[in-house]
Specification:
The chain is built from 24 helices and 3 strands. The chain is an all-alpha fold and 474 residues long. The chain has a 3-stranded parallel sheet with strand order 1-2-3. Strand 1, helix 23 and strand 2 form a beta-alpha-beta unit. Helix 1 packs antiparallel against helix 2. About 2% of the residues have low confidence.
């Protein structure tokens, strides 16, 4: 009589998808119960993974199989090692030029990818890493000595991208394995490769990001991948995100860039740097405020090419050294306010509600004229931008201007607070009012509305003494 494991193995290979799904759901419990004796069923589950299944059942099947495989890796590592070796045998044994084998490969890889827990199988992967790397190498572009020729079929590109994701997930935090996998990425770049994932891996998961990133950029340039989404990825890396040491990347990229043709260099510069302004980046302002970001554009200009894009880039670099007139507060004297947060509320009323103070301050325009540092950065220090806070603190308010204030609102939605910190969400108490003593400078104030932005111990008596109608909504 067949054993329980033998019957489960047979059901995992059954022709009926519903039977296979139910058996996959039982596999984790069987592994937990029978331990390494479940190896035949684990091997059969690989056949389950590559069998065609109705689309509506695919997600459930993937989750059930991955749950069982995770259980085996945790509970029965010896049996799991044999299962993993068999899985690698299957991946390496497919003839990906054959439509049937190609479909089976895709189904197996899709099952491995659709693990909601993204389990790490680092101890199981390590003995087979060389085989995985060789398989990735076989999927790489065959150039026949012509670096601009891409004869890899689209399905091979999909296979390579998916297998990279599987290998990275399985490597987990094994830095040595990760580095070996990421080192292969430049070989896998085709004209249609979405480089976002590759750039992320090279930047965050490799011990020497500039080395791999330089190879990725070089390969993308010579294989014609620098366009559309890939160009945006390079623009993000070079102009918007401070994720790498630019001097190191410049050093790694320079010897490669010298071999680019004029057309390749022009395409890279145009798509990744000059046209990246369409993504909301002011190229000249960015280069002006972040000198380290000038290194790679300057290195490219120093190649001495005179293509149209290089001429435009050289012009942008020259303009980045010219500092426009800085937005400064008027220098005339004004009424001295003792409490800045109250003054901010008054400025908001006069500048953004009544247009008494003009032109209205705009932090983005202000930032363009600030050469010392890039003051607009969502990843910067929390709190109001010091340079903007100083501008408002030094802004003079005259007696005549203050006569216009008859009502005053202190609300989180007031524009001035979002000029001080464009990313302020209203939770912090940076702009809370601690004193109303400066109300003496507002002789015509009749109504004050405060929406929670006051210190808990604030004294309202200066307002009451002047007959101001106070509405506090805390």
């Amino acid at each position: 009589m067949p054993t329980v494991i033998e019957m489960l193995s047979d059901r995992l290979r059954d022709r009926d998808p519903a039977v296979r799904l139910n058996s996959a759901r039982q596999l984790a419990e069987s592994v937990d119960r029978f331990g390494s004796a479940c190896l035949p069923a684990l091997l059969a589950s690989l056949d389950t993974a590559v069998a065609e299944a109705p689309p509506r059942k695919t997600a459930s099947l993937h989750h059930a199989l991955n749950h069982a495989w995770r259980t085996a890796a945790h509970e029965t590592p010896d049996a799991a090692a044999l299962w993993y070796g068999a899985m690698v045998d299957m991946l390496c044994g497919y003839d990906l030029g054959d439509p049937g084998d190609s479909a089976s490969f895709e189904r197996l890889v899709a099952t491995l990818l659709n693990d909601p827990k993204r389990a790490s199988y680092a101890p199981l992967l390590r003995p087979h890493l060389t085989r995985i790397l060789n398989l990735l190498g076989a999927l790489a572009i065959a150039t026949d000595g012509q670096p601009d020729v891409d004869d890899r079929a689209p399905e091979q590109s999909r296979h390579a991208d998916a297998l990279v994701r599987v290998a990275v997930n399985h490597a987990g935090r094994d830095e040595e394995s990760l580095a070996s996998i990421i080192d292969v990425l430049p070989q896998l770049v085709s004209r249609d490769t979405n480089l976002d994932h590759f750039i992320f891996l090279a930047t965050f998961r490799h011990p020497r990001p500039p080395v791999v990133l330089a190879r990725l950029i070089d390969t993308a340039v010579v294989r014609g991948n620098v366009s559309d989404h890939s160009a945006f990825s390079f623009g993000e890396l070079l102009l918007r995100e401070d994720l790498i040491t630019f001097s190191d990347l410049c050093e790694c990229l320079r010897p490669r860039a010298t071999h680019w043709s004029d057309a390749q260099l022009d395409s890279f510069v145009r798509d990744s740097l000059l046209d990246f302004e369409d993504g909301g980046v002011d190229l000249i302002g960015t280069l002006r405020r972040a000198p380290t970001r000038r290194l790679i554009p300057q290195m490219l200009v120093d190649l001495g090419r005179t293509t149209p894009a290089m001429t435009d880039l050289a012009s942008a670099l020259a303009d980045s050294h010219c500092v426009p007139a800085r937005t400064t507060a008027p220098t005339e004297s004004g009424i001295p306010f003792q409490h800045l947060n109250f003054k901010l509320a008054v400025i908001n009323e006069l500048m953004y509600e009544q247009d008494v103070l003009s032109p209205a301050f705009d932090v983005w325009t202000f930032a363009e004229s600030w050469p010392e540092r890039e003051i607009l950065s969502p990843g910067g220090e929390a709190g109001p931008i010091p340079e903007v806070l100083r501008f408002f603190a030094e802004l003079p308010l005259t007696t005549e201007q203050l006569q216009h204030v008859t009502t005053l609102s202190v609300e989180r939605s007031s524009r001035i607070y979002h000029e001080l910190d464009p990313w302020w969400g209203g939770e912090e108490d940076w702009f809370d009012i601690h004193s109303f003593e400066d109300v003496v400078h507002l002789p015509k104030l009749r109504t004050l509305h405060v929406d929670g932005m006051v210190h808990e111990d604030v004294d309202f008596s200066p307002l009451h003494r002047r007959g101001v109608d106070v509405d506090v909504d805390c």
